[in-house]
Amino acid sequence: MIYKRSSELFAEAEKVIPGGVNSPVRAFKAVGGTPIFVKSAKGAYLYDEDGNRLIDYINSWGPMILGHAYEPVVEAVIQKAKLGTSFGMPTELETQIAALAVSMVPNIDKIRFVNSGTEACMSAVRLARGFTKRDKIIKFAGCYHGHSDSFLIQAGSGAVTFGTPNSPGVTAGTAKDTLLAKYNDLENVATLIEANKNEIAAIIVEPVAGNMGCIPPAKGFLEGLRELCTANGILLIFDEVMTGFRLARGGVQELFNINADIVCFGKVIGGGLPVGAFAARAEIMNFLAPLGPVYQAGTLSGNPLAMAAGLAMLQALDTDRAIFKRLEEKTAYLGAGIERVLKANNVVFTINRIGSMISVHFDANPVTDFKSAAAGDNETFKKFFHGLVAEGIYIAPSAYETWFITDALTYEDLDFTIQAIDKVSKTF
Ligand code: HOZ
After folding, report:
1. pTM of the predicted structure, to 2 decimals
2. Domains, in order of start, for the chain
3. Which pLDDT band, with edges at 50, 70 and 90, does 162 fall under?
4. Is 29 left (phi over 0), alpha (psi -120 to 50) or beta?
């Protein structure tokens, strides 16, 4: 594949945008080379500025669960745009998407829309602090809840990819209120709670981690967190930015039948437009301004184009009740195929998979937390990544990211991908 135009565009971008990108994980720093500039996308495919076609396994880091340029979403946005793009006043559309989301997700009465997953998690923590009148939170090493100050402590995703899991710029005062626990280790969480009795407002967790590769919760982990929270007056926040409306209609709460106190959304809920949301039962949500004392706001929150895209997406997922099973089957097929060819080529690997999330780790040991995720062989990952790009397949340019499977992928696409992985892994 030729990347002449992408290289030129990247050189231009670097002059006026730090690192040439508006979000660090796009910059290829973990794998080397030049970011690919996208011209357009349709269904399961990306088309770049050099005229190459790539099968897409990032899908905008999750939102495009039904494929790129999904017609009902595109049409909804076009129609809304003709009526005005932002008012800073309430619209009926906001109530429609809120009502639909509340009907799809268990255990929530009210939802507030924001503009990103970062905003959702940041606001959820503020709400939890206001509600419990406590300051501290527990987060897990390798979990990523966006780039807000409280979360950039041993964060996953781009933060760890670039070696800055604890970012400069986060004050010591902020950092001291974020306690760090080990994912899938309940004893560790219990010890932290004991050492900070009556001081912890919330435990925030990706109920299926997706920012150190895909790491499903160990048996009993989420149930244990629920029990610890209930016993200690702590709110349990599920960051379902990746998993919400993806692993099940009602997200992980539905999938594992475990109730969180606050749930955060992003990605799929916006249908590819910038949308986040956080939701809870009324008792908690009524603590938000203008009803309650916890302030949270946004000029573009509930923006009509974003709400139109999100509503069209949720309606599609609500209507097609077979979608999550279909996605799971496609992902299982892909996982089994990758396993077969990597084994045949004597590659050391571990595959983690749940629903339509999957990650390939170049290490023989189980990947269950940040430490085991970080043990993967990054040199092999680099060869894997560039080898796949050369074959017309795009995965995330970092070993710490999850692949997101879209329903637009055909079994022919999956077979093509498995064959490409066979070819590439012979060169390791
Ligand atoms: N939160 C996304 C998945 N790790 C990455 C998006 C980004 O940081 O650009």
Report:
1. 0.97
2. 4-69+322-425 (3.90.1150.10), 71-319 (3.40.640.10)
3. low
4. alpha
